[in-house]
Amino acid sequence: MRSSWIERKPVHGPANSPPSLEAIHPSEESTDTEENEEEELGVMEDQRSVILHLLSQLKLGMDLTRVVLPTFILEKRSLLEMYANFMAHPDMFLSITAAVTAEERIVRFVEYYLTSFHEGRKGAVAKKPYNPILGESFHCSWEVPCDRVRPARTNSGPALRDPAQAERCGADTPGCYRVRFVAEQVSHHPPVSGFYCECQERRMCVNAHVWTKSKFMGMSIGVSMVGEGVLCLLEHDEEYVFTLPCAYARSILTVPWVELGGKVSINCAKSGYSATVTFHTKPFYGGKVHRVTAEVKHNPTNTIVCKAQGEWNGTLEFTYSSGETKVIDTSKLPIIKKKIRPVERQGLMESRRLWHPVTEALKEGNVDTATKHKHLLEERQRSEERQRAASNTPWKPRYFIKEGEGWVYHSPLWKTH
């Protein structure tokens, strides 16, 4: 398996290896109880004047990376945790590698991809996750009941379970697969996050790096997610390279809301299958919101094998080359809650612990206290940056390594298995 920016070579010796995902034992984690649902409120009058003042200082197309936004628009979780919430359907994720054919595997990946955004983008109201501090990390895992993972299809009769699947199931918890996740802020200027997710029993993992670029567009703010991810299925020796859509915060002076936009691609060079997913932004007049369309293609024969349409936070309809159709209602999909260690048992640079004072103040509605704690964190980051510049010491992330244009987890499954 090769990809444009992943070089498979040992980088760390055993003596200086950073902690791996296995360092966190399942017994340390418990089911996450944070709901983090955002109130569906419009912008209050005093807040509107703050936003108007901010807008008066901005120019169209201006990069907002270094602009300090008011605390009341924050959404009580770090961007790193938002990436983890894209994994709210780990059973669908694990089902990808269970498919027998390459065609079915990419179709399952597209089904998973299209259903992953509704939980990551909670609530209709547009609020902004905390900008992660350099070196900040987020760890969690999911326990996925084996019987929730969709088995391979057969040409005759019902789907059959893979006997090897039953053997591998329950390495940590009987009857469950364990999916582990780590994200880290690997760069501050530009702001780049790396995240990595794996299931050892299913021999599959995802590695991604995302550079968030924000720009001012008048009555909305656009955020580009520059970078790519790679899904590796070791069992099939396949890699799926994928990109991410842009996000837009609309109506920022009234009731802000989020929409996704742009064309993304999913490509498997080995099998020759690719997919194009288009997130359609709402036209000025008429038209639906949150519309998405997708097409899966076998490139060598130029054949369309699957089409999808619908809303990424509503109902999606899939049509297959066999003539079959399937409807997935994202609002009715069961969500598997992530497992996370209590705040007091987390490291000082882990998201929930790092942002705990800000989150608690926001929950109590105390914006001034939240702003003060946020300012302290940002000032500490600036001070550490100045110290590194003075001593000419480059920043070295804990979990990710720069390889080419991307960032790769230090001990991914393809290196260790």
TrEMBL record:
Which Gene Ontology terms describe the biological processes this protein takes part in?
A: lipid transport
What molecular functions are annotated in GO for this chain?
cholesterol binding
State any GO CC term: cytosol
Alphabetical keyword list: Lipid transport, Lipid-binding, Phosphoprotein, Transport
* Pfam families for this protein: Oxysterol_BP
Show the InterPro entries listed in the entry: OSBP_sf, Oxysterol-bd, Oxysterol-bd_CS
Spell out the Basic and acidic residues composition-biased ranges. Answer: 1-10
Organism, by scientific name, is Anguilla anguilla (European freshwater eel)
Composition bias (Acidic residues) maps to: 29-42
Taxonomic superkingdom: Eukaryota
Asked whether the UniProt record includes Transport among its keywords, one would answer yes
For this chain, the family text in UniProt reads: Belongs to the OSBP family.
Q: Cross-referenced PROSITE patterns, in alphabetical order?
A: OSBP (PS01013)
- The answer to whether UniProt assigns keyword Transport to this entry is yes
Region described as Disordered? 1-42
Mind telling me what this protein is named?
Oxysterol-binding protein
